[in-house]
């Protein structure tokens, strides 16, 4: 294993444990609590797709006329991840992005999708994040999370984009959360079947195959550049803190209900 990756893993492990053992999971007692969780989490699912496509745009040629861009090995890694994230199979064997699958899961269980839909519609129309947050009444914890992701996106540093993509998202779903989902599914099987499928699919694909591809991509992009690795570690720590902040926001909302 790459020694730089091992160092990052050792450094971030305490923060990862804070996230994996966050109080928010224990606060999810029923379907209504899960709906609140989803209404926050969907923003992270959406901006993950934006980070993914940023990497594809930066590491491969996505314009015409086509010219070779970057290293073929790295092109393969990001394109392989994009195929799975942007055009995976749903429960019925239909192709969908993970974001579209998540939205369908929210709709099936009755979670409120109006905020994320208004956010996307306003952002698509105006390109203004602040206007989109205001129009959709996006929770602050979610807007803070998205703002950090786009700060890294706008840095134009592919090694940082890859680093937070790799370490900030892939394996942060604890077994406890899956147990909660399974328990709710026993009582409401037709209501959260899609969400259960999404979580299981996420663990299967993102937590295994895609995580290995992403690790190799980050190693390729940082190479032997000590400064890149240090910057990457700093960005990863920040990304994890914003993830914890997102969970803090959900927890506070659940506790105040």
| Major sheet: arrangement of strands | 1-2
- Report the portion of residues in β strands: under 5%
Order of helices and strands: HHHHEEHHHHHHHH
Give me the Rg, rounded.
18 Å
Residues in helix, %: over 70%
Number of helices: 12
Class by SSE composition: mainly alpha
Question: What does it look like?
Answer:
This protein is mostly helical and 257 residues long. 77% of the residues lie in helices and 2% in strands. It is built from twelve helices and two strands. The chain has helices at 3-20, 23-27, 31-59, 72-86, 98-109, 114-126, 129-136, 140-153, 158-167, 175-187, 193-222, 226-256; strands at residues 88-89, 95-96. It has a two-stranded antiparallel sheet with strand order 1-2. A hairpin with a 5-residue loop joins strand 1 (88-89) and strand 2. Helix 5 runs antiparallel to helix 11. The termini are far apart. The mean pLDDT is 93.
Walk me through the topology.
Layout: H1 3-20, H2 23-27, H3 31-59, H4 72-86, E1 88-89, E2 95-96, H5 98-109, H6 114-126, H7 129-136, H8 140-153, H9 158-167, H10 175-187, H11 193-222, H12 226-256
Antiparallel strand pairs: 1-2
Helix pairs in contact: 1-12, 3-4, 3-5, 3-8, 3-9, 3-12, 4-11, 5-11, 6-7, 8-12, 9-11, 9-12, 10-11
